[in-house]
Design goal:
It holds the Pfam family SBP_bac_1. This is Sugar ABC transporter substrate-binding protein. It comes from Arthrobacter psychrolactophilus. The protein has 21 helices and 17 strands. It is α/β, with parallel strands linked by helices. The protein folds into two domains: about 220 residues, D-Maltodextrin-Binding Protein, domain 2 (3-Layer(aba) Sandwich); about 230 residues, D-Maltodextrin-Binding Protein, domain 2, CATH 3.40.190. The strands form six sheets. The protein has a six-stranded mixed beta sheet with strand order 5-3-7-14-8-17. Helix 10 crosses helix 11. The protein is globular, with a radius of gyration of 26 Å.
Length: about 525
């Protein structure tokens, strides 16, 4: 074990000897680290004894001010003695400009909230635009190294297939994103038609039929069920599970018993879509479900006269408004046609790559790594995620950080975007017990997930696997064509029918596109990830 005193000596020594090989285009360009010229300290703060300025680019929330005006960012500068020239842009603007930034000779020193896809990280990592970070982590990031040593799954998630780490993680382990598609129903309408909360798929169907028959919105405006397929939290994956007998998610890619499965070619999936076509013919499904966006969908929950019998969203209040939220309740995981309850697990990740990257233009990689490691202190990570202590957070009598309620003029989400820069951070499940309490709405959702969904989880999520550049190239066009075909056929078969006559041709077309190769690639990457974690 290296003592704290010895760690300091080793870290300072490493700065003088570290040569970071960055391949710039056609030739290898060694990057010499000049952090020692600014008095880099091996431990403690400030990071450097002489003021140092670094330039960062990347994305930021559209509501966020210039990061340099944020109180938390100013505290980072004061503590580390490193000033950041922030060049972060709103997501849509950065996406338009990032290729130019990456291709130019005028790179920032680092990317914060990188906005880079896995393919871009693989490309710009292997060509030397982004520096490999594992040596820097070992020498200059004790907070992050401690976490990665204890959590090989996080390390595996950020390690590329070539063995290098090119970007640092953002982690928030609330246990919520795996079950975002929550089915809600109008309790007032259930009372009016004399029905109890549904517990089976047949009960639920009967409730929709009753809503339609009684036209409880009046004037033919009743919408028994509306949803938004293919979205983060608006799809009917659990109805497909109940009607067909197989869990599903928006990717149609699940993991069961260590095997990657594509659900949209299974007989169980066909059975569910056939049943949903019957529901559509009965007038139970909103015809606009396949064309509406978030804005128009959410507006349906806030019509002057309630018109929604049932919907899928991960927060009732967001869908129907605070005044009407008590009129709705979540439907439990329904017992399906085969007598089993199945909760579909989404592939949404709590471990995310791409929070931070250092470029070959950086003359001070060691100081930069020490700067970013400060953010991996659990208290700093909490503030990066929600905002500074004294503004959005305060300590309770047990020393746990808790939320300070936002004033009436702004929502919690809006306030968070204005005071918390996000970026590199790790808040683990243990941190939510020992460092920071989940915000109230998250704690409520945690309870729902633990009581209603987790006990019936029917598949594993596909983990945060970093695919190699070769793997990404192999499946990129296949994935696009598979997604396009499955979405097109799903909508057609539910609205118009015809699945029996077209099914065999559809499965053959997917095979011709390369579905089997795509699943084989995902399985290969999955096996590699599990071995490394």
């Amino acid at each position: 074990m290296i003592s704290r005193r010895n760690f300091t000596s080793l870290s300072v020594l490493a700065v003088g000897t570290l040569m970071l090989n960055a391949c710039s285009g056609k030739s290898n360009s060694p990057v010499e680290d000049a952090s020692a010229d600014f008095g880099l300290q091996g431990s403690g703060y400030p990071v450097v004894t002489k003021p140092l300025t670094l330039s960062f680019s990347g994305t930021k929330s559209a509501l966020a001010p210039d990061y340099k005006t944020m109180a938390l960012v100013q505290e980072w500068q004061k503590t580390t003695n490193i000033t950041v020239d922030w060049q972060n842009l709103p997501e849509n603007v950065f996406q338009e400009k990032k290729n130019l930034i990456l291709a130019s000779g005028d790179l920032p020193d680092a990317f914060f909230n990188t906005g880079l896809s896995d393919s871009e990280v693989a490309t710009y990592g292997t060509n030397g635009t982004l520096l490999p970070l594992e040596t820097l982590i070992d020498a200059h990031a004790p907070n992050l190294k401690k976490i990665l040593d204890a959590r090989p799954d996080i390390k595996a998630a950020i390690t590329s297939s070539d063995g290098h780490i090119y970007t640092l993680p953002s982690v928030e382990e609330l246990g919520l994103v795996q079950f975002p598609h929550m089915l809600a129903i109008n309790k007032i309408w259930l009372d009016k038609v004399g029905l109890e909360m549904p517990s089976t798929i047949e009960d639920y169907h009967d409730a929709l039929v009753a809503f339609k028959k009684e036209d409880l919105a009046g004037g033919g405006k009743t919408i028994p069920l509306s949803y938004e397929p293919g979205t983060f939290c608006g799809d009917i994956v659990d109805l497909i599970a109940a009607l067909g007998g197989v869990p599903d998610n928006v990717d149609h890619r699940i993991v069961q018993d260590g095997k990657v499965v594509f659900t949209a070619v299974l007989p169980e999936y066909k059975k569910a879509i056939t049943a949903l076509n019957g529901w559509y013919q009965e007038g139970l499904i909103d015809p606009e479900s396949f064309s509406q966006d978030d804005k128009s969908y959410l507006a349906k929950g806030k019509t002057t006269t309630p018109s929604l019998g049932s919907f899928v969203w991960w927060e009732i209040k967001e869908m129907v408004g605070e005044d009407r939220a008590a009129d709705y309740a979540l439907v439990p995981i329904l017992t399906g046609v085969d007598g089993k309850q199945r909760a579909s697990v989404a592939n949404n990740q709590e471990i995310n790559r791409g929070a931070f990257a250092i470029t070959r233009a950086n003359k001070y990689p060691a100081a930069t790594m020490r700067w970013v490691d400060y953010l991996y202190d659990p208290v700093q990570s909490a503030q990066a995620n929600w905002g500074p202590i004294g503004v959005t957070l305060k300590k309770d009598d047990k020393g746990i950080l808790v939320q300070i309620p936002a004033d009436a003029s702004t929502s919690e989400g809006e306030r968070r975007q204005k005071v918390a820069p996000g970026g590199p951070k790790i808040i683990t499940k243990d941190d939510f017990s020992n460092v920071v309490a989940p915000e109230p709405r998250a704690a409520e959702r945690q309870k729902i997930v633990q009581e209603m969904y987790l006990p019936h989880a029917a598949n594993d999520a596909y983990p945060p696997v970093p695919l190699s550049n070769e793997e990404l190239q192999q499946i990129s066009s296949i994935q696009t064509d598979v997604t396009s075909l499955t979405q097109q056929k799903l909508a057609k078969w539910i609205v118009q029918g015809g699945i029996d006559g077209e099914w065999d041709g559809y499965v053959s077309q997917l095979k011709n596109i390369g579905l089997e190769k795509m699943i084989e690639t995902y399985q290969q990457a999955y096996d590699r990830f599990k071995q490394n974690s």
